[in-house]
Design brief:
Helix content: 55-70%
CATH architecture of the largest domain: Orthogonal Bundle
Largest sheet: none
Radius of gyration: 17 Å
Strand content: under 5%
CATH topology of the largest domain: Arc Repressor Mutant, subunit A
Number of domains: 2
CATH superfamily of the largest domain: Winged helix-like DNA-binding domain superfamily/Winged helix DNA-binding domain
Number of helices: 7
Length: 162
């Protein structure tokens, strides 16, 4: 990749990668730090990466860096200890977008990440598996479980019953 292609990749894909990381960790400063680390890593590998692979490479690197930061901060929720009842809310909120974001925040990190990659960024299951290091079957399972949890949250908050 040339310097011009590097700059184009940062300009073209940067907002999408930042938005993905920010929605996953809900901290602007940490998200910016993760993205900066990702750009630095891309710059160090600029001669080894083709421009056509830059978008997937950026998402994969940002995802891996984000997981490292989460683990370091001991905030990663183990799927084995995940309790479905923890995402239900008792309050009634009429703003669906706000409720969806609230529900997404309550999902375990891995479910939130794969749902954001699939439903917000439009990646295919195979691409999500490549980005996250999960198998395609695991990606489908996490997306299914996350969507069920989101649906249950919406039903519990009576958004659909108003």
């Amino acid at each position: 990749m040339t310097v011009k292609e590097y700059n184009n990749a940062v300009r073209e894909f940067g907002d999408h990668v930042y938005r993905f990381v920010y929605r996953s960790i809900k901290d602007r400063h940490r998200a910016a730090d993760i993205i900066q680390d990702t750009y630095e890593k891309l710059w160090l590998c600029v001669t080894e990466i083709e421009y056509e692979a830059a978008k997937a490479w950026l998402f994969t690197s940002a995802y891996n860096r984000m997981i490292d930061v989460i683990r370091k901060d001991s905030r990663l929720i183990s799927i084995e200890s995940y309790d479905d009842t923890s995402i239900f809310a008792a309050e009634n909120d009429s703003d669906l977008n706000e409720v969806l974001h609230h529900a997404l925040e309550r999902l375990p990190g891995v479910q939130r990440s794969v749902i954001l990659l699939r439903d917000y960024e439009g990646y295919q299951y195979r691409e999500i598996a490549s980005i996250t290091g999960l198998t395609e079957h695991q990606v489908k399972t996490y997306i299914f479980r996350g969507r069920v949890a989101l649906r249950n949250f919406l039903v519990k908050t009576s958004v659909w019953h108003e």
